[in-house]
Every structure is written in structure tokens, then in C-alpha cells.
Amino acid sequence: MQLNDRNILITGGRRVGAKLAVDLAQRGANIALTYFQSRDTIEAVVDEVQELGVRGLAVQADLRQPADVDALVAQTVDEFGSIDCLINMASTFNASPLDQLAPEDFDDNIASNLKAPYLTSLAAARAMQQNPTVDGLQGKIVNFADWAVFRPYKGFLPYLIAKGGVVTMTTALALELSPTITVNAVAPAMIDPPPHLTSEQIESIRQASPLKRIGVPSDANNLVLYLLEGTDFVTGEVFRVDGGRFLGTDHL
Length: 252
Fold this sequence. Notes:
- It is a single chain.
- With 252 residues, the chain is of the alpha/beta class.
- Helices cover 43% and strands 15% of the residues.
- The protein contains seven helices and seven strands.
- The mean pLDDT is 94.
């Protein structure tokens, strides 16, 4: 799929998502970004993509709510005319030690990390199905899962259950939406460490990777670009981007 003048919706747009938005804008794509609370951050990213000569849009939405998702898709289509690609990146990541688990830990993770991309995928897919078919395609969806779905670590049980659902959703939805909409997933390890981690924690994660480094946004984003513009013959796949962590013996 050629990305020039395509309309791409990205849920979440901080850190890795912000860099992906710029990468896509540099290829001529118009970018819509969602935010829940980080309005200033997302609007700054929209300003950056607009400086590249494409259209940008920031939309506030609680992706756990069907009405918000429907309004998000409608506003994006109204502004851009269509949605050609959806990148489900919005996520929450909070520790839930087994001896401290509460019922709301499960409910919150399922709502934020599984229900939200599920609702957004369905709403965006319905919009894509109104697009003309070009080279056999009407649109593409890329979900973000987590490498640890395949090799769990302790202390994040509800989160990993939800992300495991994203993997299953990816394969099932790929079949449901074939042959005109592709659905794939990226399952990264740590990309661009969050600010709350100490240098010791980051170094421990680095040493746990066979490649002995921490991921950078381009490690994940280049795969997304490949799935969007590099091939139209992949669907239902989940790609680990983990520096080889899956091969190791640690459980950090």
C-alpha cells in the first residue's frame, strides 16, 4: 500500500507512537491521533506532522466506551474522508503482584488493553469497508501486543491476559476481515524505557537480552512501516520485536 495521501488513525501517540506519526507523515500520510488525558502532548505531535505538509487531527476519546470510539471514527472520516489504516497503540502497563490482586485489576486491564483495541478495530474496519478496493485491499490494521505473552514474567497477570487476547483478536479478525483488510500485530519488548525505571533496572533488562541492548522506537516502527507499505501479502501474523528476549532463560 502506498502511504502518500493515505489517512491513518493511531490510538495513543506518546513516545513510540509520536515517532511513528512523524515517520508516516514523512511518507505523505495524514495522521489522526487519540488522547485520553495527554492533550498537550498529542496536539504537539499533530503540530509536528502538519509542519511536514500533511493533515493532522487530535481527538479526545475514552476508547473503552463504544460511543467514544464511534465518535472518533466518525470525526476522522469527516475530517479526512476515510480511514485507510489503524494502528492500535494505546495501552496501560501497571504491575499487579499476585498477592495484591483485586477484581478491578482484571477489569481495568481487559477494558484498556483488550476491549479498547477491539472496539476501535471493529469501528475502523466498518469505515474501511466503505473504501474503494485498490489492489485487492480496503485497509490495514496493526495491533500492539507484548512479547511476554509468549514467555510471561511475574507480577503482571491481568495485563498479560489482556495482551494475550490482543494476539487472539489479531488472528481471528484477520480471518473475519479477509480478503480486503489485513490485520497483524507487533509484540515488542521494552522500547524507549519509560521515565520511572531506574538505570539499574534498565541495565538489568539490557543484560537479559541476547542482543544486549534496549529497543529504540525505530525497531518497532520500521516493522509497522513494512506491514503498511512493504507487503500486502501478510495477515494474521504476530511479530516479536524483543532483542531475542524470548530465547533467554531469565524472567525479568
